[in-house]
Write a structure and sequence with these properties.
The protein is of the alpha/beta class and about 375 residues long. The protein has two domains: about 5-10 and about 255-380, Aspartate Aminotransferase, domain 1, CATH 3.90.1150; about 15-250, Type I PLP-dependent aspartate aminotransferase-like (Major domain) (Aspartate Aminotransferase, domain 2, 3-Layer(aba) Sandwich), CATH 3.40.640.10. It has twelve helices and twelve strands. The protein has helices at about 15-25, 40-60, 70-85, 100-110, 130-135, 160-170, 190, 240-280, 305-310, 335-340, 345, 360-380, and strands at about 5, 65-70, 90-95, 115-120, 140-145, 170-175, 195-200, 210-215, 285, 295-300, 315, 350-355. The longest helix has about 40 residues, at about 240-280. The radius of gyration is 21 Å and the shape is globular.
């Protein structure tokens, strides 16, 4: 049988339009955007068009979009680049307790350089308490970084409520939107973000391309030294094929997101109920309402999620946690610790994430296979 792919939070398939866009600049229009001949002009036009498409998706202007190689690079550029430009007396940084390592590790690096780091706690659903964040803000706070949607739980954060508080003390707000762009509307002005991270491979674009929104007037230092590409913030010859693909991907998700979100949420809810009914004692993690429409994070009442994922690996693609930084060992993720999960809740957690093309038939089949795998591993085996 064909593998049922339910791991879209780890990575998405490539949209046909994104593949076509990339292939054009791999095969025929392979020029350097800095060249003035026809192939160079075609490449530059593709970069400009892609920048405009990403800007339109985010409600930004074209000059506010910087292309990078990944969301990790965008997060590093946002935090380290902003930190390099703030006055010496403002060296306080706040991040949430459930940030991806691509934010948490730069934050810890800044702490080692003498910055004071505060971690905003989350409730049992993985949602940052706005009042808790308010209590951490100080006159010397320079940067606050809170992800828009958690990659494991799918919980959406109240960014719009945080932004005025952050700006009131003169700090910058960075939002890692790698998991939310393409799944829910992300408008930088509605959110109030000064910096916002986008991941190409989470929005039906190849791996190896990302973007950083930088609000006009926000001062950043580049992490690399070289020529003046990307406003000097990301020097190096542009990755035209993947930038073109990202532009096509931005148009693709903008056209399909609203309709798909509603349909996918219905399928997710049907799968959730089916598993809760068939596996008594299982629990759903994350916020019941404020979560990504495609994400189901569930803890099994017994057993190890890694064994379940391994047992299903040829039939249903799932994740036992955040797939992008799994280490192959049964460790409790920082997210599960932050929400106060029990040992079994953490050990038995599986993440199921649907995509635009997930069908009702696939959900029915996947539910049956997941239940069967659980029974074989942890019910019949014990009997």
């Amino acid at each position: 049988m064909e593998l049922i792919y339910l791991d879209h939070n780890a990575t998405t398939p490539i949209a046909p339009a994104a593949k076509l866009a990339a292939m054009r600049f791999l095969e025929s229009d392979f020029g350097n955007p800095s060249s003035t001949h026809a192939k160079g002009r075609a490449a530059k036009a593709a970069v400009d068009e892609a920048r405009a498409a990403v800007a339109d998706l985010l409600g930004a202007t074209t000059s506010e979009i910087i292309f990078t190689a990944s969301a990790t690079e965008s997060n590093n550029l946002a935090l380290m680049g902003a930190a390099a430009m703030v006055p010496a007396e403002r060296r306080h940084l706040i991040v949430s307790a459930i940030e991806h390592p691509a934010v948490m590790e730069p934050a810890l690096a800044l702490q080692r350089q003498g910055w004071q780091l505060s971690v905003a706690p989350v409730d049992r659903h993985g949602r940052v308490d706005v009042q808790a964040l308010r209590s951490l803000l100080r006159p010397d706070t320079a940067i606050v970084s809170v992800m828009h949607a958690n990659n494991e739980l799918g919980t959406l954060q109240p960014i719009e409520a945080m932004a005025p508080l952050v700006h009131a003390v003169g700090a910058l707000l960075h939002v890692d939107a790698a998991q939310s762009v393409g799944k829910v509307p992300v408008d930088v002005n509605t959110l109030g973000a000064d910096l916002l991270t986008v991941a190409g491979h989470k929005m039906y674009v190849p791996k190896g391309i990302g973007a950083l929104y930088v609000r006009e007037g926000t001062r950043l230092a580049g992490l690399l030294y070289g020529a003046g590409q990307e406003r000097g913030l990301r020097p190096g010859t542009e990755n035209v094929p993947y930038i073109a693909a990202m532009g096509a991907g931005a148009q693709y998700v903008r056209a399909r997101m609203q309709e798909s979100a509603s349909r996918v949420a219905e399928l997710r809810d049907a799968l959730e109920q089916r598993l809760l009914d068939a596996i008594p004692g299982s629990v759903v993690n994350g916020y019941p309402q404020h979560r990504l429409p495609n994400t189901l994070h569930m803890s099994l009442p017994s057993g190890d999620a890694r064994a379940m994922v391994a047992a299903l690996s040829e039939q249903v693609a799932l994740s036992p946690g955040a797939a992008c930084h799994a280490d192959g060992h049964s460790t409790v993720s920082g997210v599960m610790r932050a929400i106060g999960a029990t040992a079994q809740q953490a050990r038995g957690a599986i993440r199921i994430s649907l995509g635009y093309d997930t069908t009702a038939a696939q959900i029915e089949q996947a539910a049956a296979l997941i239940v069967l795998a659980f029974e074989r591993l942890y019910i019949h085996a014990d009997g």
